[in-house]
Amino acid sequence: MPQQYSSDIATVERTLEEIDLKAIAAGKTYYPSPAAWDDEVLYFLMLDRFSEGKEYGGFGDVNGDPVAGSGERTTPLFRIESDANNSDWQQWFEAGKGWCGGTIAGMRDKLGYLKRLGVTAIWVSPVFKQVTGSDSYHGYGIQNFLDVDLHYGTREELRDFVADAHRHGIRVILDIIVNHAGDVFAYENNQPYFYHQGWKWPVSGYRMEQGDGGSIPFGAVSDSAPEAWPDGAIWPAEFQEVEVWTRKGQIRNWDGFPDYIEGDFLSLKDINLGDSIQDPALGWDLQQRIRAFRPSPVLDHIVKVYRFWMAYADIDGFRLDTVKHMEPGAVRYFTSAIHEFAQTLGKENFTVIGEITGGRSNAMQILDVTGLDAALGIGDLPDKLEFLAKGWRSPGNPDTGEQEGYFDLFRNSLLDGKNGHQWYSKHIVTMLDDHDQVGVNHKFRFCGDSPDSWKLLKAALGLNLATEGISCIYYGTEQAFNGADPRRDDNSWSDVVLRECMFGGPFGSLQSTGRHFFNEEHEVYRFVGRLAEFRKGEIALRRGRQYLRQVSATGNEGEFFYPQPVNGEMRWVVAWSRNFAETECLCAINTNPDEELTVWSVVDNQLNPPGTTMQCVFSSSPEQEGEETEVAPVCGSAVKITVPPGGFVVYR
Questions:
Q1: Helices (H), 428-478
Q2: What is the 3-state secondary structure (H, E, C) of 271-333?
Q3: pLDDT number for residue 438
Q4: Which of 67, 162, 185, 562 is deepest in the core (most CB within 10 A)?
Q5: CDD domains recorded for this chain (predicted)?
Q6: Which residues of the chain carry a pLDDT beneath 50?
Q7: 293 three-class SS
Q8: Residue whose C-alpha is closest to residue 595's, from 465, 459, 482
Q9: Contacts of 183 (CB under 8 A, 6+ apart)
């Protein structure tokens, strides 16, 4: 059934020729980029799962005034005592597979909630119009690159949301797709085809809606099938040419080159971004592939699409999806074109963050050769962050060349050929929890693997916000979403459990329905808000050099060690320093969820010589703040620190 539009569809361009970027930008003053993105606190939200604007109680408006119930405010605050597990699991789980109801208007309604959390940049899942009748609530199945999906709202609402966010000091990063569009056409007989030796497969035609067998002629449809506008085929019209598509079927070997470059991402149709080397023996040679790359016309069309969104909505950055499946030459071409246009708008530090799966080494190479500003999706980083905080992983060991621990990921940048100690801070996005968990079979959020995991959430968030990298919080983590899948022998649709609704609806966290989670009194929300505010005033926590510190139970010379798991478990203190100019911030987490621990930690001998004092300036237990500790002449300099159970502290 054709969609009904809440605004005049005639205002949406059918072709890129109708777009005059200079006219759109004329007379506008665009919001500036930040001086450094590692100063920011990002917050990733899935638009369909965040807010529908009907919530009341537990949170305030943008001015901090309490939001009360009314005729339109009908969803009350979640109470764990009465509302957890109030839904039939199977019915709840099925609801999570489709659209739930989050909107741009609802997201705008929560700007106050996000501002008080300490968020300075909102990363929004794709907003573009999806294939008609599809369940692609996540936004990655685009049918019209120039319009916003009605489920979310309108283009005008997106533009106004960004403007309002800017008024409150919050930037907006838009999640975008260049590699593929939605399931917009059908292969012959509407059958699935799979990648095989680069063969092109026959196509029946464009779809009018999801599941349609290809009733619209394959090719330019403006004259041959006027009924295709606006809900059928693909738009803008420049994307309808046959050569836009690789037409080589679904990827089967996700690590086979060039299969993962040329094949369809499941049912999502691969876009032909250009030609390069196809020899599997040369797949590793990124520089040679870039030199050989020749962009296709559609790559220029894609560049103009996203320049349009920058000019129209004043977007501050992009998160580029599925970089692994794009030719590095295409990534380089696109990123360069976007950066250039951003500078014409006065956005000198517009960021393009790439989702780069395939391991840390691959991510570093892709960043080096493509000009992407930062990487996320590095497979082992979220794992090491999460399970270090849970006491199941080594923090690392600077005395070895092994890359076994979280802190090893941020080792001496000279060893990786980088030109400064801050390289990793500016080029890696760090987060726990996310919407995909690529490579993980049985998926769950941080609090989903054990009833006691929430006790260590503050430690994990302290680690995330006070170590090197661009810190990002996944929506719901600040409310201790549990994202738990009770199935143990079935991993199908496993990512559903990572995407509960903040507004409750049919798919709230903790197997609840009809209750929202915008609770500004939640202890984790308040912890993050205090830490984010403290972090603003401490440049060392945002940009400082980073050193994992040796700790000791006794404080005796010769008894300081980098903590390591024993029999797979480590219930101990992990300490690290962030040093910048004349300042040292000694940070520490306690991976014991039930006991306060007091240990000795090494500190910088020059910045904190023996006989001076350091003070607890931040703690997950605020009553500890202000306590002083004297620097002792052990291992150069060392201090005695106390860390609350499952907690986080900073001494300065």
A1: 457-466
A2: ECCEECCCCHHHCCCHHHHHHHCEECHHHHHHHHHHHHHHHHHCCCEEEECCHHHCCHHHHHH
A3: 78
A4: 162
A5: AmyAc_5
A6: 1-6, 414
A7: coil
A8: 459
A9: 131, 134, 141, 207, 210, 267, 268, 269
This prediction's pTM: 0.96
How far is Cα 650 from Cα 652, in angstroms, rounded to an integer? 7
For residue 85, list its beta bridge partners: none
Per residue in 308-344, pLDDT (tens digit) is 999 999 999 999 999 999 999 999 999 999 999 999 9
Looking at residue 4, its pLDDT comes to 42
Q: Which CATH number is 544-651's, of 2.60.40.10, 3.30.420.40, 2.60.40.1180, 1.10.3720.10?
A: 2.60.40.1180
C-alpha of 639 from chain center: 36
- Cα–Cα distance list, 96 to 10, 44, 291, 386, 492 (Å): 33, 18, 44, 24, 13
Show me where the domains of the chain are located.
Answer: 9-178+296-534, 544-651
Q: What gap in Å lies between CA 169 and CA 151, rounded to an integer? A: 27
**For residues 273 and 581, what is the distance between their CA atoms, to the nearest angstrom?**
45
Instruction: Tell me the CA end-to-end span of the chain in Å, nearest whole number.
Output: 62
Going by C-beta distance under 8 Å and a sequence separation of 6 or more, which residues neighbour residue 567?
Answer: none
Q: Which CATH class is domain 9-178+296-534?
A: alpha beta
- Structure confidence by residue, pLDDT tens digits, 581-625: 999 999 999 999 999 999 999 999 999 999 999 999 999 999 999
